[in-house]
Amino acid sequence: xPSSWSSSLRFELQFTGENINLWGEKxxxxxxxxxxxxxxxxxxxxxxHTTLTTANAGADEARAAMIRFTGGEGPFTVTIPPVSxxxxxxxxxxxxxxxxxxxxxxxxxxxxxIAWVATDxxxxxxxxxxxxxxxxxxxxxxxxxxxxxxxxxxxGKYLKTDGANATWQAPVAADLADYASxxxxxxxxLAVAL
Length: 194
Prior knowledge:
Structural class: alpha/beta
Number of strands: 15
CATH class of the largest domain: Mainly Beta
Strand content: 25-35%
Largest sheet: 5 strands, mixed
Order of helices and strands: EEHEEEEEEEEEEEHEEH
Radius of gyration: 26 Å
Distance between the termini: 77 Å
Helix content: 10-25%
CATH architecture of the largest domain: Sandwich
Number of domains: 2
Shape: elongated
């Protein structure tokens, strides 16, 4: 019976008694692939939608533990293999990158995002709570406590609250009336601390 391949990382699985006098070479190749799957970085330049490469016993992009995508504004879709795997993804593109396996359930990372993603061979997910990604959960939890007024047409204004209501206000001199004494108080506090 010939060797076979592991389903997720495509390592060569030796059949008993096969590859006599070659086992060291075969084992070293598998260990190099294991090292890349656990701690390897791939930098992948995107200029359009793409699929990560896979190869039994050979070098492949999808085996990498961590991937940094670079490129233009996109948006880009990157298809990963439909097998169980976790990745650390850094979107260094100027626009969003969506990770998909071809099955329902994708993850979209905004420019600059760094996130863990995982797939069970179908849906792609990020860690989170209540069905939301951590990013969406924090945004929902943080802003569910505060009702902010609309930002549209409020350029150059600041948010002011009276303890119960928040409103956008244009800066006025009265808002800065205690600025000099506040700065002096900070200077005294700093001098005492030193």
